[in-house]
Amino acid sequence: MAENDFRLEERLTAWHIGIALGALFLGSWFGPLQVLEHIGIDLYGKLAPGIKSYYQGLSLHGVLNALVWTTFFITGFLTFCAVHSLKMKLRYPWVNILGLVLMVAGLLMAAAPLLLNAATVLYTFYPPLKANPFFYIGLTLVVVGSWLTGFGLYFTLAGWRKAHPGARTPLIAFGSVLTMVMWQIASLGIAAEMLFLLIPWSLGMVQGTDPLLARTLFWFTGHPIVYFWLLPAYVSWYGMLPKQAGGKLFSDPLARLAFWLFLVLSIPVGLHHQFTDPGISPTWKALHAILTYAVTFPSLLTAFTVIASLELGGRARGGKGLFGWIRKLPWKDPSFSAQAVAMLIFALGGVGGIINASYSVNLVVHNTLWIVGHFHLTLGTAVTLSFIGITYWLVPRLAGKELWSLRAARIQVWLWLIGMLPFSLSHHFLGLRFGVPRRTMLGASPYLSPEWNPLLILAALGGLLLWASLLLYFFVVVGTVFGSRKLAQPAEMPVAEALRDARETPAWLDSWRPWLVATIILILLSYGPPLIDLVRSADLSSPGLRVW
Amino acid sequence: MSGFRVDPYEKGWMLASAAILLLFLLAVAASAFYGFSLPGHEGRVAPGRSAVEPPFANPLVVERGPGRYEAYLRAQVWAFVPNEIRVPAGSTVTFYLTSPDVQHGFLIERTNVNVMVVPGQVSKITSRFDEPGEYRFLCQEYCGLAHHVMFGKVVVEPRS
């Protein structure tokens, strides 16, 4: 297929990713402000009257870095993945264009109250903290826009399957579409929360709301959203990284099995965020704890398959011995090293995740800085650093330019690792050992203990290194887009071959119906009874409050 | 269902992964066996009523038996009422909390007490205090502009 056949798709991708990077850039500025505040250096006064409080900054940090950066990057990247993997243009491009328009409109709508201190409700927006209605409507439009992107990809895949009867869907397209399907089912919770509770309430159509019902609908989406963030990284780890390492995908069928298990198991686990909530039966919490353990399994499977694939690469490049192949991996390629470091860190994050899910143990760490340490390993590194690694080939591809300063990109990756380890480990320890609460302006709190200080200082140093790493990253991106030389050859999407013929993959691993049915049944079993209980006893009597 | 070839090492890894997860699960099940339980349905209070109706209107500590106390607290913007609870060492205290306004949290340092406080709901959690001393409790959920000043303490007095 000729080069410019995907011009429209690539322009769409570029818009998505450009906006995502803008959000990451703006949101990241609050990171150092927060860690510095914790050690007594309060710089918020310098931001007045633009930013009015620590908590307004924290709301921006969370919404921009956890919600906007991820959603826009993912919708853009997966569109690119699907069309290039299927070698087929979008079947109805207007669906995807409309999706982008809705997402941008929603983003602007939500940004206004955030910037005006009218939505200082953090990115979990738990009622009865009541934000300006534009905040809720804007976020809802972003979600609906992302659904349209998903539909655009389904129509395209359906067209491909019709044209290729009996053929296995290429793995990258399969993983991309599956991610969007999982997200659409998962985000029904937040959509229901917005449409039935928060939007009518914030508009004054109803007087009160039920905070526990709202929390439960939020976490219906709030846990699978982390798989929505993670699965695009898995698409790259399975489908692209083995190629970048000079190897092959160790097992195509097991890669698909892992994706299917994520579809089935990502959603019926959300109550593990509500172990400490009143008004929800411990029985249902226990079921969700068990299912959370189950969803760990496909990640463990991924660890084997991906590392085995990289080993094939290291050996093909001349690596010998039990561990000698590791040294032969292409560590000088920042796209590879970023994703390899992300995987390494994800192993730590996964262990912490099992602890969080562990029913009783969760009490020790719930809502402490441990959690902040945890999701900076998972979302903040496994996902974000993987996406950064992907942009090291994708931005040159989209811009048609050479990567600006390979050396800066290489340094950026290791700087991230060196910053993240102290940042995250000290947060974990502060939560575990001292029960230091998260989302708290610690520097101004009367209960700040001197014994927390050494770890808070370590966290601040780590945070500053992370911020430096991110600034370096933006120099590389901006330099690539505006200052670099034109690429002689267009950069290609790396596509890993499977070690064995993908035709060996049985048909049941490429067939949607049974897996979708299992997904829905498991959701009904795990969420049906507790949600029915909450809806039947719903008490819409909490008036909204603006206490910031 | 047609199968596919799985590398023997990968098969071993999958079995080991499943076994480890099962082991963790058994450990969690054991904690339930030893009497651990998470908060559940402990009753409801309309947010508008909690400040005017007992037992949360005048929150207090009640002795229910030798060394057994019940403490009723309101978590509200931005204080716990009461913000100091005194019990003798060796006491078992069951805390009941509710919120008349926004969501809060209740975490007592150096204990396993950690629970969400949600308007409309009553949260219940129990802990034993053997060592005399001060155990600070603090709000662990963002509840507005001065969230970080919301704390109190359990003072465990030595037995005379």
Task: Describe what you observe in this structure.
The complex is a heterodimer of chains A (548) and B (160). By secondary structure, chain A is an all-alpha fold. Chain A has a single domain (3-543), classed as Cytochrome C Oxidase, Chain A (Up-down Bundle), CATH 1.20.210.10. Helix content of chain A is 69%, strand content 1%. Chain A contains 19 helices and two strands. Chain A has helices spanning 7-28, 30-38, 54-86, 93-115, 133-163, 171-186, 188-202, 211-222, 224-239, 241-244, 252-265, 282-316, 324-327, 334-357, 362-365, 369-399, 406-434, 453-483, 512-536; strands spanning 208-209, 542-543. Chain A has a two-stranded antiparallel sheet. The radius of gyration of chain A is 23 Å and the shape is globular. Chain B has 160 residues and is an alpha+beta fold. Chain B folds into two domains: 1-37; 61-157, Sandwich (Immunoglobulin-like), CATH 2.60.40. Chain B has one helix at 8-33; strands spanning 61-65, 68-76, 79-81, 84-88, 91-98, 104-108, 114-117, 123-129, 133-138, 151-157. In chain B, the strands form two sheets. In chain B, strands 1, 2, 3, 5 and 8 form a five-stranded mixed beta sheet that branches. The longest helix of chain B has 26 residues, at 8-33. Chain B is elongated and about 70 Å long. The mean pLDDT of chain B is 92. At the A-B interface, helix 8, helix 12 and strand 2 of A face helix 1, strand 6 and strand 7 of B.
Descriptive keywords:
heterodimer, A: 548 residues, mainly alpha, Cytochrome C Oxidase, Chain A, two-stranded antiparallel ribbon, 2 strands, 1% strand, B: 160 residues, alpha+beta, Immunoglobulin-like, 5-stranded mixed sheet, 1 helix, 10 strands, 16% helix, 37% strand
Name the biggest interface: A-B, 74 and 66 residues
* Quaternary assembly: heterodimer
Mean pLDDT of chain B: 92
CATH superfamily of the largest domain in chain B: Cupredoxins -  blue copper proteins
Tell me what the CATH architecture of chain A is. Answer: Up-down Bundle
Round the Cα radius of gyration of chain B to an integer and report it: 21 Å
Give the CA-CA distance, first to last residue of chain B. 73 Å
Structural class by sheet pairing and helices of chain B: alpha+beta
